[in-house]
Design brief:
The protein has helices at 2-27, 47-52, 76-82, 146-151, and strands at 31-35, 43-45, 56-60, 69-73, 90-94, 99-102, 113-115, 117-118, 132-134, 156-161. With 164 residues, it is an alpha+beta fold. Helix content is 27%, strand content 25%. It contains four helices and ten strands; from the N terminus they run H-E-E-H-E-E-H-E-E-E-E-E-H-E. It starts with a helix and ends with a strand. The strands form three sheets. A five-stranded mixed β-sheet has the order 2-1-10-5-6. Strands 3-4-8 form a three-stranded antiparallel β-sheet, with no helix packed on it.
Length: 164
């Protein structure tokens, strides 16, 4: 009887631990990718997904911060390719409902990235995170245009691939 009681307590503890793990896993959803992607099924891009893709990093200053930063994360092209995105433009949405449609012609293989780290550390909303759609502004004049600055969405929560 004592052994059965111990088993019930153990099993109950596992059930609670599993429920907590599920809640923790669900709460780590950081970005929704939807629209003309993944055969029409939305993707919840989580911390685990970041590790499955190559990481790009660059050092750049921004018009919103007062110093040079090393930003890193997957290139948008890799994310879109990974989820079989069609070639339409993309709409970016921030946590505050700011939304902008980005013409696909400004997206190149190395930029923008969906930065999830500054100096190899995750960053939070106080620092424009936890996700920032960012370009290497200091690398070339083509990254210092209004279309690029407008597309530099911080606190990114959704990317929608639009049908052509």
């Amino acid at each position: 009887c004592k052994r059965l009681f111990s088993y019930v307590i153990f099993a109950g503890g596992l059930a609670i631990a599993s429920a907590v793990a599920f809640v923790a896993h669900a709460s780590e959803i950081q970005l929704v990718i939807d629209g003309d992607v993944n055969e029409g099924f939305a993707v919840n891009f989580t911390g685990d997904n970041w590790l499955a893709l190559p990481q790009v990093h660059f050092d750049t200053s921004t018009g919103w911060t007062n110093r040079l930063h090393r930003l890193s994360g997957p290139a948008l092209t890799d994310v879109l390719r990974h989820y079989d995105a069609r070639p339409g433009d993309v709409r970016l949405t921030a946590v505050n409902a700011y939304s902008i449609t980005v013409n696909r012609d400004i997206i190149i293989s190395e930029a923008p990235i969906i930065a999830n780290r500054i100096v190899d550390q995750p960053f939070d909303r106080r620092d424009n995170g936890p996700l920032w759609f960012v370009f290497p502004y200091d690398r070339a004049a083509k990254f210092k245009r209004e279309a690029i600055f407008s597309a530099s969405v911080w606190q990114l929560v959704q990317i929608t691939v639009l049908a052509e």
